[in-house]
Amino acid sequence: MSADERSLAIVVLAAGKGTRMKSDLPKVMQPVLEEPMLYHVMRALAPLGPVAVIVGHGGDVVEYYLDSNWPDTNVLWQRDQLGTGHAVMMAKNWLSGFDRVLIVNGDMPLLTTDTARHISDSHVGGCSFATFSAEDPSGYGRVLKDPRVRIVEEKDCSEEERALTEVNAGVYLVDVPPLLKGLKELGRDNSQGEYYLVDILDSFHRMGLPVSAIHLDSSDDVMGVNNPLELAEVGRILRDRYLKGWMIGEGVKCIDPSSVWIGPEVVFKGEAIIYPNVQIWGKTEIGRNVTVESFSVLRDAVVGDGSRINGYVRIEDSSLGRQVKAGPFCYIRHRADVSDEAFVGKFVEVKKSLIGKGSKVPHLSYMGDATLGERVNIGAGTITCNYDGENKHKTSIGDDVFVGSDTMLVAPVKIGDNAMTGAGSVITKDVPDGALAIGRARQRNIEDRRGLMKKKSGGGDRVKQ
After folding, report:
1. Which residues bind Mg(2+) (predicted)?
2. Annotated binding site for acetyl-CoA, which residues?
């Protein structure tokens, strides 16, 4: 391990239950912008050095998430939750390979890389901890600096100390060798019977090492989350951060930013117009000059340059090419691919299908497990009958095909280039190139409809009362 690699380790404390969340999910797995709270912490800290996460309550869920999404993370178990100091004890063997450690709570999703780096750069040795000025310091440990820097828990404060507004943020930057020595000296002689990490400051003072408070300008970055109200609040703050970044950085235009929600993995390639009440989640990519109208929801979608998504469109795990028009009221899902200049219109569902360049599915249709060539026109009410009760089957439609309204394409079936189907047809056999396929009963006109109805009823004229 090189000197740089040895220099800084990060320990994230993520073993708590989060009782006030009133949830079966571990606290750090509570969703913020459709990602676990822990995701946001990891995203901020991973660029700074190796990370170890201390897990406990619901640890199997947390460990699975980390293995799947942050495979380089070291997962360490705290089987018994005996306080923050005890949690750090679980990392002592891993920490022995490093010079310094940044210790962060896993319920701080607003922490940024810049703030964490500022704390690291401000460290002068010994033990440093982050502080901020609180408008309402209730519940926080107060920071005292005379005659020496220390933290006094609120319950132990005098009236004068209670009036102080600089409080402990719960983020520490500590030299590892004296930390490991100090952990051995921690006791649990307190009302909770736990090992408190804050008590480590006394050990550093006894060793004659510096203890420093690093004051942060913003309390948002170190805001902890303890209940559903705070969870919603950090979601709004993060949403605003991401939107501000895209609006300033790429020229994204949001008509009402307060009603738009985007996830942290969303990417805008350039200018776009986003109407009110739009949601964009997952690894969605939005091209240049795209418009997304109100009440549309995009998740893991790719939208090409110049495309327009009208209102009430849902797109999931699918891609739209350039100059595509979609909606209103359509559903594009399950690896569907809508090619350049195509149109998916009103009350249309496209599932796991390819819509070729310039093709149109204007209204009231279902395209499932289908491949449409270029310049295809699908008449209203057309569906691909792709499921036989046991298996899904494919429909293949060539270039320049005209499918008449209310056509049932019973898969597996193939429609050749330049072919046409008659309106109301049920197509069960392949249609050759250039052919017209009509699959419906011959129309029969029966004269004297009223007389026929009298015969069926078995009687003569009705007697008027």
Report:
1. 107, 226
2. 380, 386-387, 405, 423, 440
Q: What DSSP state is assigned to residue 387?
A: B
**CATH fold for the domain made of 251-437:** UDP N-Acetylglucosamine Acyltransferase; domain 1 (2.160.10)
Residues marked as binding for UDP-N-acetyl-alpha-D-glucosamine? 13-16, 27, 78, 83-84, 141, 153, 168, 226, 333, 351, 366, 377
Residue 14, H or E segment:
strand 8-14
Contact 158, 186 (CB under 8 A): no
CA 175-181-187 angle, to 5 degrees, is: 115
* CATH T-level topology, domain 3-222: Spore Coat Polysaccharide Biosynthesis Protein SpsA; Chain A (3.90.550)
Q: Which of 40, 86, 123, 363 is catalytic?
A: 363
Over its length of 465 residues, how does the chain's per-residue pLDDT go in tens digits? 444 545 999 999 999 988 999 999 999 999 999 999 999 999 999 999 999 999 999 999 999 999 999 999 999 999 998 999 999 999 999 999 899 999 999 999 999 999 999 999 999 999 999 999 998 888 888 999 888 998 988 888 888 889 999 999 999 999 999 999 999 999 888 777 889 899 999 999 999 999 999 999 989 999 999 999 999 999 999 999 999 999 999 999 999 999 999 999 999 999 999 999 999 999 999 999 999 999 999 999 999 999 999 999 999 999 999 999 999 999 999 999 999 999 999 999 999 999 999 999 999 999 999 999 999 999 999 999 999 999 999 999 999 999 999 999 999 999 999 999 999 999 999 999 999 999 988 888 888 878 777 776 665 555 454
197: which 2 tokens? 């990490």
Other beta carbons less than 10 A from residue 399's beta carbon: 18
- Residue spans per domain, the chain: 3-222, 251-437
Task: List the binding residues for Mg(2+).
Answer: 107, 226
363 is catalytic: yes
